[in-house]
Amino acid sequence: MPTNPPDEPPVMLSALQHYLFCPRQCALIHLEGAWSENFLTASGRQLHERVDRRGGETRRDVHLATALRLVSNRLGLTGVADMVEFHRQESEFDAEGRCVAAKLPGRGGLWRPFPVEYKRGAPKSHRADEVQLCAQALCLEEMLKVVIAEGALFYGATRRRKDVVFDPELRMQTEDVAAKVHALLRAGITPPPVLTKGCRACSLVDVCRPGDVGGRASARRWIANQVDEVCR
Fold first, then answer.
1. How many Å apart are CA 88 and CA 40, to the nearest integer?
2. Between the chain's N and C termini, which has fewer beta carbons within 10 Å?
3. Where do the structural domains in the chain lie, given as residue ranges?
4. Among 31-45, 146-160, 200-214, which range has the highest average pLDDT?
């Protein structure tokens, strides 16, 4: 199991999703600090804000916690979960003898965590969303000392949930991507642009300029040019 060096700062959970979508996008955002909002990111941000405003609430045997801070010291990850459903359990262990429920501060009984990530669009052909959700589960497992078998992705386009099982394959892929993100940020080098069909929906397309020879310039150079133009 990969372990993050203790002297290395944690990376955001969202970086894993960004890396699987495009390593260059991940570096532009998390290494160079570039960000540009388009309609897709704006509507996605509004969806997350609506979830966050709901706060914590309890419905019978389910406690809903929103904007929950997560961290994994082992993998060097940190971030915020859109929502974690805590389902009341009679037993701390499941039929296989695994610890699946934990006590929550200020609440009696035992509670089984079930992370839910909200996405603006529709289910995708790649597993970037599943990896981001699995990373949240790995953080919760480390924090609560439990095993989390599954979670869900809610897509705004379909208004439906997609259940995600955290099987060994997905767990291995998530840990592998976390290690690759750390290596990318540790190296401090932004990968060159590669033009793909996904570039059209990327909010950083004007910064990255993947179809332009000049697109290999870093985001810092692009930002500097914009500042020079404003100051003229």
1. 36
2. C
3. 11-189
4. 146-160
CA distance 178 to 156: 26
The per-residue pLDDT for 162 is 95
pTM above 0.90, yes or no: no
96-128 pLDDT tens trace: 999 999 999 888 999 999 999 998 888 888 899
d(CA 64, CA 139): 17
Question: Between 14-21 and 128-144, two packed helices, what is the crossing angle to 10 degrees?
Answer: 160
In contact, 24 and 190? CB cutoff 8 Å = yes
- The residues, any chain, with a CB within 8 Å of residue 111's CB and separated by 6 or more, are 63, 86, 87, 88, 89, 101, 102, 103, 104
* Contact residues for 220 (Cβ-Cβ < 8 A; gap 6+): 32
CATH of domain 11-189: 3.90.320.10
Rounded CA gap, 25 and 207, in Å?
A: 10
